[in-house]
Amino acid sequence: MNVLQFTDNGIYCPAGGFYIDPWKPVDKAVITHAHSDHARWGSKHYLCQHDSVPLLQLRLGKDISVQGAGYGETTLINGVEVSFHPAGHMIGSAQVKVTVQGQTWVASGDYKTENDGISGEFEPVKCHTFITESTFGLPIYTWKPQQQLFSNIRDWISANQAAGKNSVLLAYSLGKAQRIIYNLKDHVQKFMVHGAIYNGHQVLLEHGWNLPPVERITPDTPKSAYADAVIIAPPSAAGSTWMRRFNPYALGVCSGWMQVRGNMRRQNADAGFAISDHADWPGLLAAVKATGAEQVLATHGFSSTFARYLTEQGLKAGEVKTQFGEEEEPVTENESEPS
């Protein structure tokens, strides 16, 4: 039985009449997390893990019809059992477990297997079929422990301060920016952020998340304010006129793609930190094994390579094309010059 199907609108559950992370407007959308490639505007009703509710409202509008559910809480949709389970990707992220007539499929959304301190611990879910992301589905992508990565970032910041340079870190505005801020909070005096990061951060603070405060950078921010701060901006701010105000500065890119050195050079970065909110190769393999799935379907990223490897290991595996991938909207000129 195909509990879930792949259609032009997205991942569809025929028995429940709903879609998971649809890329076109539908009547019923079940959302894994609030990144823009998974949570799109236009559907009539949304269901998500309850921590994602305010983030969906931020991204899609306060007037959307949205319902939240806790981790492990079963919701019946036309008699189909649906529940959310921690994915560890960002605050509110979840895998979606769907059970129809005793057959259980799990759509992972995006996930990582190392606990970052704020996004929750990834929870393997036993299932018959596992739909897994494979963004970094190559053996070269093996992350260093988070503690070591943040130690390297702290050392880089200290070196910049000694050289009289401002430290600018590029990170996705919703999710990774908060992960960085949270894990540097005991070592950084002040965080100053781009408007795209500020908006999401404030929503999380308003909903009780234990995050340090941040200051929004505006055209009126004096140059002296940057001297004792770490500056965080979205990746698309790189190379924009908005960046000039920080001179002299050193640029650090926080991305799993920094595992390949050439990517750092191509972004004209002074430092690259391979810190990702997606599972690395060992994490993907461990997650697949822990589900006990009889069938694995790989989506976005190195899906064909990952599926082929799983097949060689004796699993029934295949590749599925989706529209998931980019997590951030481009920064517009207005966002580049926040008021």
Describe what you observe in this structure.
- It is a single chain.
- The strands form 3 sheets. The protein has a 7-stranded mixed β-sheet, covered by helices on one side.
- It has 8 helices and 19 strands.
- The protein starts with a strand and ends with a helix.
- It has 2 domains: 5-140 and 277-328, Ribonuclease Z/Hydroxyacylglutathione hydrolase-like (Metallo-beta-lactamase, Chain A), CATH 3.60.15.10; 146-273, Rossmann fold, CATH 3.40.50.
- The radius of gyration is 20 Å and the shape is globular.
- It is α/β, with parallel strands linked by helices and 339 residues long.
- One of its GO terms (molecular function) is ligase activity.
- This is Ligase-associated DNA damage response exonuclease.
Largest sheet composition: 7 strands, mixed
**CATH architecture grouping of the largest domain:** 4-Layer Sandwich
CATH class type of the largest domain: Alpha Beta
SSE sequence, one letter per element:
EEEEEHEEEEEEHEHEHEEEHEHEHEH
Q: pLDDT below 50 for ≥5 consecutive residues: which ranges?
A: 328-339
Number of helical regions: 8
Secondary structure: number of strands: 19
Distance between the termini: 54 Å
CATH topology of the largest domain: Metallo-beta-lactamase, Chain A
Whole-number average pLDDT? Answer: 94
CATH homologous superfamily of the largest domain, by name?
Ribonuclease Z/Hydroxyacylglutathione hydrolase-like
Strand content: 15-25%
Please identify the structural class as seen in this structure. alpha/beta
Helix content: 10-25%
Count of domains: 2
Q: Which word captures the global form?
A: globular
Strand order of the largest sheet: 7-8-9-10-11-18-19
Gyration radius from CA atoms, angstroms: 20 Å
